Amino acid sequence: MPYGRAHKHASSSPPNMGFLYSTNAHKYGASSWRGGADATAPYAFVEMDNIGNFIKTKLRSLITDVPLKEKDIQNAVEFLFIGRNFTKGIDYDRESGKFNFSGREYIPDFILPKLRTCIEVKLLKEPSKRSKVIEEINADITAYSKEYDTILFVVYDVGIIRDEVEFCRDIENITGVRLIIVKH
Question: Record's superkingdom (predicted)?
Fold first, then answer.
């Protein structure tokens, strides 16, 4: 069945993980996906977009005060997963999936093992840290691409990023990588 015609209950669609299967999968054909003709790859990419859109629209409503630590944002993302009825250890896990890359140990903030996706949260609250966050994201892409098919970066911005398009453009040109910015 072509990607664009798959439905949630179709026998050839990927297993239901509590996500709605998007009919936009045709946009992410095998040629644009690392992994070739694997039928689950477009599904994972579309689901990463669905989860990214969900986080982008809902995260800000959970944060009442200016966050002091990145962990505050991670906690809010986990609350969103719980509210979406994700099961820890099955649908997602937090700070697991440790691996080594070039002599350095990496631990993603969240993993979605069935989608081979990791989510990394960044808090940007100081202008002097903007370049450092971009460097961290680029280093994470290189390492996480070894273990995961899709990578979602959630950058919580407290007024540092003036041009979101410029901040995201080069990073999002990498296949399988999505970056969302949530403004405080």
Answer: Bacteria
